[in-house]
User: What shape does this take?
Amino acid sequence: MSDTQTLDKAAVARYLQDNLPGFKGPIEVTKFQGGQSNPTFLLKTPDHGYVLRRKPPGILLKSAHAVDREFRVQSALADSDVPVARMHLLCEDDSVIGSMFYIMDHVPGRNFNEPSMPDVSAADRGRIIDEMNRVLAALHDVDITKRGLADYGPEGNYLERQVGRWSKQYKASETKAIPAMDALMKRLAEEMPADDGQRTLVHGDYRLDNLIFDAKTTDCRAVLDWELSTTGHPFADLAAVIMQWQMPAGPEGRGMAGLDRAALGLPSDEDFIAQYCKRRGLGGVDNFGYFLGFNFFRMAAIIQGVLKRALDGNASNPERAMKVGQYVPVFAQHGLDALERK
Assistant: This one.
């Protein structure tokens, strides 16, 4: 029986031997502990490193864990200004290991769990965050038609679609009443700005710990975790960065609340937004508080789903899932507070 913690190494090796040109075993398998949604494994051979990312087994929320979409978007971005891992294979045959999966190159480098980056110099901290800004602007400047992604997400009001979708997802995984979450969903529906026509590729979970940087330089080598990607409003991604920074500093919150950013070489929210707008030739960002509140809401809905999977017994990392699941009311209140920000 397949589960989220183990992988049938023999079955994977047979599949790769039959389908991946140049593959030479044996393989050693190690599970990455960071991801909560799609279980991810490092596959090491004597001369190459691969990553296997799979849909979890069991009963899942509709449209969630779409590893085939992750494979498609990263394949489309090959050789673009948005660095991604090289994609190899998508296996849609559940009989191989129990669920759909894909194989990509392992990208070695540095990954920073905290934006304060305690082991990095102040100068390099600034360069890394500026590189994060550059990649985000490049992502939103991707020509989705030329890259074959014009149909990657529906047209129309992205915010309306997302608020509706995540409200349904939240209700489907609700385990107890959270008044702040109910209030936030109501206000997001009532205060939604009109569609301004901006439609780009969006990552959906753009933050520092989803980027791999070169081991020696401050260049970004790969953007990871494309599960929530679609076409939509670019300011949702921009606000996702700022949302993360409002969290407490440290390995749990992974934010920058209370830090002296200038002393650490880190930009203010306003400076990061201004640099993004400069790169994209924009005059500014309207309704930023709404986009920020939306991001807090979506993250609350996501971690509620993580908690529900833990309670149902099919979380990727059960102990951490139970811990992060307790933050749903906190994110909901932050979302209400963000709606007051102009």
Observations:
- The chain has a mean pLDDT of 92.
- The beta strands are 28-31, 40-44, 49-54, 87-91, 101-105, 200-202, 211-213, 220-223, 230-232.
- Residues 200 and 231 are 5 Å apart (CA to CA).
